[in-house]
Amino acid sequence: MDEKQQYNEAVQMIKTAILQSQYDAARSVNEKQLMLYYGIGKYISSNSRNGFWGKGAIDAISEQLNRELPGLRGFSARNLRNMRGFYEEWKVLEQNDPTPHLADTSAKMEKVLIPIWQTQMPNSHGIPIQSFLRVSFSHHILILSKVKDQDERLFYIQKTVIDMLSYKELSQSIARDDYHHQGSLPNNFIQTLPAAEQAFRAISTFKDEYLLDFINVEELNIREREDVDERVVENAIIHHVKNFILTFGKDFAFIRNQYHLDAFGEDQYIDLLFFNRALNCLVAVELKTGKFKTSYLGQLQGYLSVLDGFERKPHENPSIGIILCKDMNKSFVDYVIQDYAKPMGVATYKTSKDMSDELRKALPDVEELRKLLDSHPEE
User: Fold this and answer.
1) Which residues does residue 283 pair with via DSSP β-bridges, in sequence order?
2) Which of 213, 265, 314, 317 matches a 20 to 30 Å C-alpha distance to 137?
3) Paired strand residues for 263
4) How crowded is the C-beta side of 326, counted as CA atoms within 13 Å?
5) Shared-domain flag, residues 207 and 88
6) Would you say residue 284 lies in a domain?
7) Is 134 within a domain?
8) Does 201 share its domain with 106?
9) Of 81, 103, 122, at which residue does a domain stop?
């Protein structure tokens, strides 16, 4: 190894150590902040809910805190109430321990008072505590305010960590109702994929409905909805392929559109071809602007046969096909898809015109999305 290579290796080693240290420090700060907020919330809850404090106490405490600690951020009256809510929503998961309040005598306080900063976070009832502590307080409050079911809350906590969602992305995920769309698309993965683990991973990878909010029918200058054909939708996806991949899920790499298959003298073209790193397989996506038809399955199965026979590498898993259509009868699709030998699933999609008002408010406007995309130009 020459001197330059040694230096490069040293730089990479030190760089990795620095980045890991910064990551660990940031994670540690977040964990300590959550523990602090949980403890403060517990303290405030005990005293405000049980009548030990008078009306307006939280506002008065916030004002005095900011006077005594100039420049203090994050302790507004609203945020103190958020801390109380944070504790109250998760307190069912903790073991019983003493809770201090102002009505105690000094002698009793000395015996039971646990410093707020030492309060333990909930760690029972199956909660993924490591993920819980990696999610920021603002993300937690968003989840608590929008989601009421505990399992659903845990889903968004895990998703925030795994997909590294920003606050806006988490808000969009909740608005799209990703929890109820996960792993529910009609498919035949269990019967057709060789390993059960691979099948279940495929099921969890794809949703039964996708929001392609960047496809704006009005902006495409199309007067009638029925004039929107597959190629128009495809071109819109290609134009915003980065956004499509973010919508479709992590670990997808785009290969190309209208992927040419030439086998036995027959020319065939796959609308969109991806590779998924987690599944280690090619993923063929066929776009249909109308309601699902059984003939789509036969067409897609033919594509997958050629992909596996002529394109798939020896180390790759069998190719998977997804039909993306505007509408389907899920019960019917679930029934007929079981008779096909290649792994396939069927999902629906919505464009900007199909969005509810609630979802529209949660998503960035067209101009904001343009700026985001323009800041990452295509290769």
Assistant:
1) 274, 320
2) 213
3) 266
4) 15
5) no
6) yes
7) no
8) no
9) 122
Q: What is the Cα–Cα distance from 45 to 54, expressed in whole angstroms? A: 13
**CA torsion sign, 362 to 366 to 368 to 371?**
positive
The answer to whether residue 125 scores a pLDDT higher than 80 is: no
Question: Tokens standing for 215?
Answer: 């496809």
Helix (H) or strand (E) holding 21: helix 3-49
317 and 193 in contact (C-beta within 8 Å)? yes
* DSSP letters for 176-237: TTHHHHBT-S-B-HHHHSSSHHHHHHHHHH-BSEEEETT--TTTTT-SSGGG--HHHHHHHH
Measured in whole angstroms, how far is the alpha carbon of residue 189 from the centre of its chain?
Answer: 22
Question: Of residues 23 and 181, which shows the higher confidence score?
Answer: 181
Residue keyed to tokens 């996960």: 182
Distance from C-alpha of 292 to C-alpha of 327, rounded to nearest angstrom: 6
- 187 in the same domain as 113: no
Phi-psi region of 99 (alpha: psi -120 to 50; beta: other; left: phi over 0): beta
Q: What are residue 326's phi and psi, to 5 degrees? A: -80, -25
Q: Cα(354)–Cα(359) distance, rounded to whole angstroms?
A: 10
pLDDT of residue 350: 81
| Pair 9, 85 in one domain | yes
Question: CA-CA distance, 94 to 179, in Å (whole number)?
Answer: 25
In DSSP terms, 365 is beta-bridged to none
Q: What is the pLDDT of residues 211-261, one digit of tens each?
A: 776 555 444 443 344 445 666 677 767 666 667 776 777 788 889 888 999
In single-letter form, the type of residue at position 3 comes to E
Amino acid at site 377: P
pTM summary value: 0.57
pLDDT at 231: 67
Please indicate, yes or no, if residue 141 is contained in any of the structural domains. Answer: no
**Is residue 155 situated within a structural domain?**
no
Domain final residue, candidates 95, 122, 149: 122
Q: How far apart are CA 202 and CA 110, in angstroms?
A: 56
Q: Tell me 324's DSSP state.
A: E
Residue 18: give the domain boundaries.
3-122
Please state the domain count of the chain. 2
In sequence order, what are the residues at sequence separation of 6 or more whose Cβ sits closer than 8 angstroms to the Cβ of residue 326? 288, 289, 290, 291, 348, 349
Average pLDDT over residues 270-289: 91
The domain that contains 263 carries what CATH number?
A: 3.40.1350.10
- Predicted confidence at residue 360, as pLDDT, reads 53
